[in-house]
Specification:
- The complex is a heterotrimer of chains A (399), B (436) and C (237).
- Chain A has 399 residues and is an alpha+beta fold.
- Chain A folds into two domains: 171 residues, no CATH class; 187 residues, no CATH class.
- Chain A has eleven helices and twelve strands.
- Chain B is of the alpha+beta class and 436 residues long.
- Chain B has a six-stranded mixed beta barrel.
- In chain B, strand 6 and strand 7 form a beta hairpin.
- Chain B is elongated, with a radius of gyration of 30 Å.
- Chain C is an alpha/beta fold.
- Helices cover 40% and strands 25% of the residues of chain C.
- In chain C, strand 1 and strand 2 form a beta hairpin.
- The termini of chain C are far apart.
- The chains are: A alpha+beta (399), B alpha+beta (436), C alpha/beta (237).
- At the A-C interface, helix 1 and helix 9 of A face helix 1, helix 2 and helix 3 of C.
Amino acid sequence: MEIRPILSAMMRQKVRAILIAGQIALTVAVTANALFLVKQRVDLMSRDHGFDAPNLIYVSYTDLRSGVDYFDAVDADLRLLRGLPGVVGATPVGAPPAGSGGNGECFTTQDGDLGTEVCHNRNKVDEEGLATLGLRLVAGRDFTREDVTFEGRDDRGYASRAIVTQALADSFFPDGDAVGQVVYSDGVAVTIIGIVEHMLGPWIHDDSVARVMLQPTVRQVDHPRFMVRAAPGERDRLVAEIEEAMLAATPERLVRIRTQAELLERVYRGDRAMVKMLLLVVCLMILVTSVGIVGLASSSVSQRTKQIGTRRALGARRRDILRYFLIESGLVTSAGILLGALGAIALNQWMVQTFSLERLDLRWLLLAAASIMALSLLATLPPARRATRVSPSVATRTV
Amino acid sequence: MWRYHFQTALKSLRRNPWLTSIVIATIGLGIGVCMTTLTVYYLSSRDPIPAKSDRIVAVRLHNWPVGESPTGGDDPPFELTYRDAQGLVEQGFAKHQAAGYNTDLVIHPEDEKQRPYLTEGRLTTPEFFPMFDVDFAYGAPWTKEQERDRRMVAVLSSEANDKIFGGENSVGRQVRADDSSFTVVGVLKPWKPLPRFYDVNAGAWEETEEVFIPLSLSPVLEARKGDGNTSCFAEADGDTWQAFLDSECVWVQFWAELTSPADLDQYQSMVEGYVASQRDLGRFPRTENVVLVQDVMTYLRDFGVVDDDARVLLGLAFLFLAVCLVNVVGLLLDKFLLNPGELAVRRALGARRKTLLAQRLVEVAILGLGGAALGLAFALAGLQLLRTMNVEEEVSHLDPKLMLVAVGLSVGSALLAGLYPAWRGSRIPPARYLRT
Amino acid sequence: MLEMQSVSKIYRTHLVETHAVRDLTLTVEDGEFVAVSGPSGSGKTTFLNIAGLLEAFEEGSYRLDGVDVSGIDDDTASRIRNEKIGFIFQSFNLIPDLDVFDNVDVPLRYRGLGARERRERITATLERVGLASRANHYPSQLSGGQQQRVAIARALAGDPRILLADEPTGNLDSLMARQVLDLIQDINEAGTTVIMVTHDPELARRAHRTIHVLDGRVTNLDAWVAREAMVAQAADS
C-alpha cells in the first residue's frame, strides 16, 4: 500500500540496501544449490539397498597354514558359522555388498559380442546366498546346491547360471521374460534362472549400482570372505562370538570382521561429510546474512527516530510503523531473492558443467527463497519493534 | 604517524565493542570456513614430489578394443598390463623407470611371541627408489641382476624395520612374509609421499607399503594384487597366475623419470615405437589415442585425486567469504558514517582526508588481523570436525604456509571491505557533525 | 473545543519526581487562536504534547472536541491525532527521504484515503501554502520558510479541527516568520482552532488570548510580570 514512498526513501540511501540485497542474493544462490546437493546425497544414503544391511556381518580371514584344501576349509567355516546360535544364514561371497570392492563386467544378449550390451556388477554366493543377504526372489527360482560350482575343485568352469536383479534383467530384456534367457561374454554363456527384486552392488556411487548378477560360485582367493546374517538384535553379540569361534577352530589365521553397517558408513563417509559441511556453510551464511539484515534494520531505525516520532504524531499507529520497516526489509529481500534466483541458476549451470552435477530442481530455489524471506522478516522484527516504541513526543523534541 | 594511527584506531575499536566483535566474528567465520575447505583442497592437490614432478611421467597405453575403455571416457587406462610394464622396464628408454603393484603380505615377526600380521607389500623394480628419491637408512635397493635372477630379497620401510627388528640395521637378516623368506638388502628412512602418487589406484592417502620385493618374483610367488582395480576386456587364457600375467588385463603402475621435461615428446615417440613392435603380435587394435605420457600432476588430476566435493565446497566457501565481506562493508559503513565520532573534530582541527583515510584503513587492518586469528581458530575447529567425520588426517591439518595465506586473505579482504566505507567516511563534510 | 481539568504530568527518574505539568485547567473555544507562552522549561511543550495526545498524563481529565481522551489507548490516540489535529513543529520535521508531495501525503496515507482524494488534497493544500510548483523537491532543496510551509500544508491536508504549533517560527528569520504567521492566522480565520506555543510575546500578540505557563501551571500574566519585576529588582539591588 505504501510501497512507492518506502522505495523512494530507500533509493536515497541505496548503498546499504544494495549491499544487503547482494548478500541475500548470494545466500539464496548458495542455499538453493547446497540444499539441492544435500537432498541428493541424503537420497543416495537413504536408498533401499535391497540386502538386509542392519543384520549382515562381513567375515574374512587370512589362513596362515600352508597345504590346506581351500574348499574343505570353506566348508568347515560355513558349518561353523551356520551352527552359531543367532545366525540366520551364511554364504561365501566374492565381495561384501556395498563394500567398494568386487567385479564389474559386461555381457551381451547374443553370442559373439552382439545384441544389447549391459555392464553390471558380479558377485558370487552359494545356495544360501539369497536367504543370507535377505533378497526377495520375484521370478524364476533360487540356487540349489547342484547349481554351485567350485572354481578350481570341480571342472565345471565358469558358472553357467545366474540370478540377476530386476534392474539388470530389464536392461538386458526390456520386454520382460528374462528368466530362461542366456547372456554372453567372451565365449561364456550364462542362463538367467531367477530375478531378485533389488540389490545394490559394491560401487555405491556408480551408475551401474543396481545392476547385479549373482553367480552360484565358490572361488579360491587369498582371503576367504563370508556374509553372515544375524537374527534381529543378535548382530553385535555375534561379531565377538564369530571371531572367538573361528579362532578356536583354527588359531592359525587372521580374522577380520565388520558389520555391513560399518562398511556402509565407510562408503558413505564422503557423502556424510559433504552433507554436514554444506549444511554448516548454509547455516553460517544464513546467520551472517541475518546479522546483516538486523544491522540494516537497526541502523535504518536509529537513523529515523525523529522521523518515526513525526509519523506517529501525524497519526501512524504502532502497527503502521512496524509495517513500514517490514515492507522496507521485504522489498530489499525481494530484490535480493530475484537476483539470487538468477545467481542460483548460474551457479548450478557452472556446477553442472564443471562437476557434471544434476540440474537444479526449482523447488529447492523456492524453498531457499521462502525461508530467506521468512528469516529476513524475522530478523527485521526486533529493530522494527524497537521503532514502534519510539514515542510520538520525539517530534516536539528539539535536538 | 602510523603509531599514532594505530593507537587512535584501537581507541575507536574499543569505543564500539559490539560492532568491533561482530565485524571480527564475521571476518573470522569467513576466513575459518575458507581455510578449512582450502586446506583440504590444497593438501589433496599438493605436489607429492615437487623436485621432480614435471619430469616423472606415467605411461598410459590403450590396449583395449576400439570404443572401449575402463576409464569411463575413451582415454587409455590408468594402469598397464604386466607384460607392457615389464616390457617398458626392459626397454629402458628413460633415465629411470619402474613398474610395480600392491599386494597383501602376512609378516611373521622374528619374535615368536608376536602374532603374524597382515600388511601391504609392493612388488617393484629397483629403480623405484632412486627415481622417487627414496632415502635409505641402511643398505641399498636390490640390483638389476638380483631383479633379473628373481632373488628373494626385500627392502623394508622404516616402520616395518621398527616392528620386525626393533629399528636395528637389519641388512643381511631374513624376514618371513607369507610362506617365503627374504634377505633384507635395505631399510628406508621414513617415507610417506602425499598423495601416494605412485599408486593412487590402491589409495592416495594410504600408508607407504612396508615391504618391497622384486617384481620379477610375481610369477614365482603368485603374489596377487592387493588393493586397486584390475580391468580386463577379455578373460585370461586359462586359470593360472602366469596366464593372468600374460593377459590383456591392466593393473600395473609404470613410471619413468626423464632427464628433463623437454624430453617428453621424444620419450613418447619411443614408447610409440614399442607399441608398434607389439602390434606385430596382434595387440593394440586402436590407432588413435594409444599412448598417453603424463607428468605426475597431470596424471593425478586426470585420476581425480582431488574429489569434486572438495572443489564444490571450496567454491561455496569463497562465496560465503564474499557474503561475510559484504556484511562487513555494511557494518563499517554504519560505523564510519553514522558514528563518525571524533573524526569530524579531527577534520575540523585540520586533518587531511588522506590522513583520515589512512587512519580508518589502519583500523580496518586491525579488524582483519583479529579476523585472521579467529579464522585460524575456526579453521582448526573445522578441520577437527572433518576428522571426526573420518576425513583423512593427511588432508585435514593446518599447514603453516596456509596460515600465512589466512592472515593475508583476512587482512586483504578486510581492507577491501573497508576501503569504500573509509573513503565515504573521510569525505563527510565536518560541519555536518559539528553542528549541534 | 479543548477542555482540561486539573491535568498533571509527572516525570519520574529513580531519584526525583518532576511535575512537568501541574494541576492544569484550561478551556479553549472552537475557532479560538490561543498562544501559550512561558520561559523554556516551564512545561509549555509538555502541555502541547498532552494537548496533541503525544504524551499521556496521570491525573485530571481532558476532553477534546467533545470526546473524553483521558486514558485512551494508543491506536485511538493515533486516530484522533490523524483526523482532528494538525501539528507544526519548530524544526519542521519533514521526512528528508521523501519529496514535498510525499511528505504532505504521510498523514493521508495513515487515514487510508484513496489515491485520487489524496492527490486532490495534497495539490490543494500545497497551492494554499504557495508551494504547488515545488511538489517534487526534497526538503533539503528548500529554504527554512518553504519547509515550514510544507509542514503547514501537511498539517492542513488532513483538514484538522485544531492546529497545534510548537514555536513554528523558532528556526526562521523574521521575514519568513511573518509569512508563516500570516498563514497560521489565515487558517484560524478560516475556522480552525489554533494553539501556538511560543516564548516570544511579539508572536503571542497575534493570538486572541495568551496563556502563560510557569512551572507547569497556567499563571496569571500580571502575577508573572510582577514576579519578573521583583526578580529584576532583586538583581538590581
